[in-house]
């Protein structure tokens, strides 16, 4: 198989190691992928580095008015990005409520907060009448993390 074919397999998520033909000498300094392949380690396996992984983004202590500010920012973003709709205010209020609940439960990791926002919004999206918005629950939740 050609190098291009191997590259495409790797780009598609297949685990592979390029092995040089027998006549080619192995280079003295090998890259990370080659060292991992030589050791029989799957570079896609995070278990080997889980203990040394850096933690996520830790949020500072929540200000009392932070949920209200977040509600305003989300509603304003949706109004400016699309067109003004009353549902945007309701979505902003739902985001603020879920954000406050998550932070009150002690979630200070940004990923944990975003996960609770995403799942919470997904659960209430249709029943709360948010389906008329032009963005979905995951997009709205991800907007919270943007600077």
Secondary-structure blueprint of this entry?
Blueprint: H1 3-11, H2 32-39, H3 66-81, H4 86-104, H5 110-124, H6 137-144
Helix pairs in contact: 3-4, 4-5, 5-6
Search tags:
single chain, 6 helices, about 0% strand, globular, signal
Describe this protein's structure.
- By secondary structure, the chain is mainly alpha-helical.
- The chain has 2 domains: 3-52, no CATH class; 66-144.
- It contains 6 helices and no strands.
- Helix 3 (66-81) packs antiparallel against helix 4 (86-104) and helix 5 (110-124) runs antiparallel to helix 6.
- Residues 1-17 form the signal peptide.
- Keywords: Signal.
Q: Calculate Rg over CA atoms.
A: 23 Å
**What integer is the average pLDDT?**
77
The general outline is: globular
**Terminal Cα span:** 45 Å
The largest pleated sheet is described as:
none
Q: With helices defined by DSSP (H or I, 4 residues minimum), what is the helix count?
A: 6
Report the structural category.
Answer: mainly alpha
State the domain count.
Answer: 2
Signal peptide: 1-17
Keywords: Signal
Brief overview, please?
The chain is an all-alpha fold.
């Amino acid at each position: 198989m050609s190098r291009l074919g191997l590259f495409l397999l790797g780009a598609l998520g297949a685990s592979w190691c390029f092995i040089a033909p027998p006549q080619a000498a192995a280079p003295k300094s090998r890259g990370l992928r080659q060292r991992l392949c030589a050791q029989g380690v799957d570079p896609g396996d995070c278990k080997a580095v889980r203990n040394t992984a850096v933690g996520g983004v830790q949020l500072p202590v929540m200000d009392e008015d932070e949920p209200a500010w977040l509600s305003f920012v989300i509603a304003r973003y949706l109004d400016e990005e699309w067109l003004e709709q009353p549902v945007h205010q309701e979505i902003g209020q739902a985001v603020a409520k879920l954000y406050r609940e998550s932070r009150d439960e002690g979630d200070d990791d940004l990923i944990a907060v975003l996960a609770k926002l995403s799942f919470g919004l997904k659960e209430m999206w249709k029943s709360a009448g948010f389906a008329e918005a032009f963005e979905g629950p995951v997009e709205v939740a991800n907007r919270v993390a943007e600077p």
